[in-house]
Amino acid sequence: MKSLFGERLQKLAIDAGFNCPNRDGYKGTGGCTYCVNEAFNPSYCESTSSITEQIRLGIEFHAVRYRRANKFLAYFQPYSNTYAPLEILKEKYGEALSCPGVVGLVIGTRPDCIDDEILQYLASLRKDYFIQVEYGIESIYEETLERINRCHTFAQGVEAISKTSALGISTGAHFIFGLPGETREMMQQYARFISALPIDSVKFHQLQVIKGTAMEKEFNERRTDFHVFSLQSYIDFIIGFLEELNPAIVVERFAGEVPPRYIENRNWGLLRYDEVLRRIEKELEKRQTWQGRMYRRIEGM
Ligand code: SF4
Predict the structure, then answer these.
(1) Would you call 220 helix, strand, or coil by DSSP?
(2) For 253-281, what is each residue's pLDDT tens digit?
(3) Does the CA dihedral 92-106-211-270 come out positive or negative?
(4) Whole-angstrom Cα distance, residue 80 to residue 18?
C-alpha cells in the first residue's frame, strides 16, 4: 500500500446488509458449519447504519484506538458482498467511494457469487480506485469443503481467482488451518497450491470453534478429527509453511482473533493477534529463515 499510495492506509469494515447464498436457501440454509458472522465483525460496524455513517464511525474509532491514517479502504466484510444485482452493488460501492478519504474497496465474497458482469464493472473502477476482491476459499480439499458445508468447490475458487486476476483486479484469498479431517501434512500442502494461484494477498486463520455452531457439536463429538494447534505448534507450522510459500504473495494475516466470549476452543488463552505476529517474526529471525526460502515453482499447477 505504501508503494502504491506513499502512505499507510486503514481498512474500515462495513456491513452493507448483504446476505449469503449458503444461508438464504439459494445454495444452502445452515451456512458453513463454523459460521457466526457477528463474531467476525468489528463493534462499529452495523448494517442498520448507512455505509456513510459506518465509514465515519470507523474513521473515528481508528483515530482514537490505533494509528492515524488519511486514506481509507472500505472493506465490505461480512457475508457475501457481491451477492446482489449489479445495480445494487453499484449503489453500495458508489456510496463508499464517495466518502472523503476512501481510495478503494476490498470486497469479501464467495467464489460462486461473482460473474463476468460484476468483474467487468470492478475492473472499470480500477482506473480511479484500488479494488480488491477477497475470496473465502478456506481449504484446498473438496472433501473438507463438503464436510464444512461450504456449498462451493475448490475448483470454483481457482476459477474465480483466475478470472479476477486476469482483469488486473487485486485478488485475495482466505484459508483456515485446522478444519476437520485435515492433518498437519495436508495443511502444509496448501503452500504449494496457493503459491501457484494468481493471487496478490492471503489471510490465514487457525480454526476457532464458535459457540453454538454445528462445528462446536462436531468438535465435541469427534475431537480426534481435528488437528488442534497449541500456540507453539502453530508458530512452528507457520514458519515451515512460509518457507514454502511464493514470496510474491503478501500475507495479510497469520491468525484470527474472535472475541473470547464466542470461542469454544480457547486454547491460546487471551493472546492478542499483535503478540502472535510478534512471536512469528521473532521465530523467523531466530531460525534465520524467511517466506519463500524453500519455494519452488510447481510446473503445470
Ligand atoms: S459463506 Fe461466509 S457468510 Fe456464508 S455461511 Fe459461509 S462463512 Fe457464513
Answers:
(1) helix
(2) 999 887 777 777 667 877 889 999 999 99
(3) negative
(4) 6
Q: Which residue among 18, 19, 22, 134 has the greatest number of ligand 1 atoms within 8 angstroms of its CB, and so is best to mutate? A: 22
What is the spatial distance between Cα 99 and Cα 101, in angstroms, rounded to a whole number? 6
CA-to-CA separations, 117 to 82, 89, 132, 278, in angstroms, rounded: 11, 11, 16, 42
Question: From CA 223, how far away is CA 215, in angstroms rounded?
Answer: 11
The amino acid occupying position 112 is D
Give me 284's grid cell.
Answer: 523467523
User: What does the pLDDT average to over 230-243?
Assistant: 96
106 CA → ligand 1 middle, Å: 17
Cell 452493488 appears where? Answer: 89
Nearest CA to ligand 1 atom 2: 79
Phi, psi of 204 (to 5 degrees): -115, 140
Give whole-number Cα distances, 139 to 42, 85, 152, 181, in Å: 25, 28, 11, 11
CB burial readout 117-149, b (16+ within 10 A) else e: ebbeebeebeeebbbbbbbbbbbbbeebbebbb
- CB proximity list for 143: less than 8 A, separation 6 or greater: 181
- For 135, the enclosing helix (H) or strand (E) is strand 130-138
**193-202 confidence digits (pLDDT tens):** 999 999 999 9
Among 18, 20, 24, 175, which residue has the most ligand 1 atoms within 8 Å of its CB, making it the best to mutate? 20
Cα separation, 144 vs 256, whole angstroms: 20
- d(C-alpha 220, C-alpha 264), whole Å: 10
* Beta-bridge partner residues of 177: 206
